[in-house]
Amino acid sequence: KVDYDVCSNYGNWLYSAGIGNDPRDNRKFNMIKQGLDYDGSGDYVRLWVPELQGIKGADVHTPWALSSAALFQAGVTLGETYPQPVVTAPEWSRHINQRPQGRSPHPRGRSGPAHTPMQHRDRGIDFYFSRKKDV
């Protein structure tokens, strides 16, 4: 099933592009976090990006972060069968090595990261919206 709503999608595309209506300063859309939250097993990505069929689980969200051996085993060659990333935002790094644990009863398929790194446990929501660099 493909979900489509003109107004909602237009607003979401603007927001994702960083030009939507958001009162928070320097707000960035984190596609890695969204992928892990709403497609933790990577099934949706594999449905629409067949080049990544051989990559199992949540690794499908960050193929450029895999070892060359893992890419070879999956039949993926960065720059040939799948493009190199155009950018890699620093905000993504805290999510790349976190993997969801199994299926969640969340209505939208959300399953949280496998663990919260010790240095991030007591940060609260301000950590994610702060202008400070990652610790």
What sequence of helices (H) and strands (E) makes up the elements? HHHHHH
Low-confidence stretches: 101-121
Question: What sort of overall outline do the alpha carbons produce when their principal axes are compared?
Answer: globular
Instruction: Please give the CATH architecture of the domain at 6-98.
Output: Orthogonal Bundle
- Distance between termini? 40 Å
Largest sheet report: none
* Helix fraction bin: 25-40%
Could you say which structural class the secondary elements and strand pairing correspond to?
mainly alpha
Relevant CATH superfamily of the domain at 6-98: DNA Cyclobutane Dipyrimidine Photolyase, subunit A, domain 3
Q: Per DSSP, what share of the residues sits in E-state strands of 2 or more residues?
A: under 5%
How many alpha or pi helices?
6
CATH topology of the domain at 6-98: DNA Cyclobutane Dipyrimidine Photolyase, subunit A, domain 3
Mean pLDDT: 75
* Counted beta strands: 0
Radius of gyration: 16 Å
Instruction: Give the C-level CATH assignment of the domain at 6-98.
Output: Mainly Alpha
GO molecular function, one term: FAD binding
Keywords: FAD, Flavoprotein
Domain Cryptochrome/DNA photolyase FAD-binding: 2-97
Binding site for FAD: 3-5
Which descriptors apply to this entry?
135 residues, mainly alpha, DNA Cyclobutane Dipyrimidine Photolyase, subunit A, domain 3, 6 helices, CRYD protein, FAD binding, damaged DNA binding, Crypto/Photolyase_FAD-like_sf
